[in-house]
């Protein structure tokens, strides 16, 4: 199993989610993030925002979205390729992606482990829950 941690542009989130769902991904965690890379922030001179010395004011941290998905080894490459191809614009600030080995996963509610903890079980219907 691997944890795929992707940091992408917020505008690409919906397209990445749709592509992953088509691939068969059944769940992911998404959080807002801020950071900087090569671009070292973003100058805001176009908004007329200048510092005390008359230089363009800069936002040091750029908004990003962090996606976390744990997947089985056999689909890791497909998930990585899908995220990269969907999130890529070809400009600085597209983001980063990391693949991190996961030694164990547990579904807390049922105590299922590893692959069983990653798959979505069939949802119980209202009538099924009343029968119990």
Automatic annotation (TrEMBL):
SUPFAM superfamilies: GlnB-like. InterPro entries: N-reg_PII, N-reg_PII-like_a/b, N-reg_PII/ATP_PRibTrfase_C. GO terms for molecular function: ATP binding; enzyme regulator activity. GO terms for biological process: regulation of nitrogen utilization. It comes from the Bacteria. Transmembrane segments: none annotated. One of its GO terms (cellular component) is cytosol. This is P-II family nitrogen regulator. It comes from Phormidesmis priestleyi ULC007.
């Amino acid at each position: 199993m691997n944890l795929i941690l992707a940091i992408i542009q917020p505008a690409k989130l919906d397209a990445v989610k749709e592509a992953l769902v088509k691939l068969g991904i059944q769940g992911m965690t998404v959080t807002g993030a801020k950071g900087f890379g090569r671009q070292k922030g973003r100058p805001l001179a176009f908004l007329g925002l200048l510092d005390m010395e008359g230089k363009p004011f800069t936002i040091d941290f750029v908004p990003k979205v962090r996606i976390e998905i744990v997947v089985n080894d056999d689909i890791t490459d497909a998930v990585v390729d899908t995220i990269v191809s969907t999130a890529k614009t070809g400009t600085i600030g597209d983001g980063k992606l990391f693949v991190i080995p996961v030694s164990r996963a547990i579904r807390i509610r049922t105590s299922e482990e590893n692959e069983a903890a990653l798959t979505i079980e069939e949802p119980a219907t209202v009538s099924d829950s009343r029968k119990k």
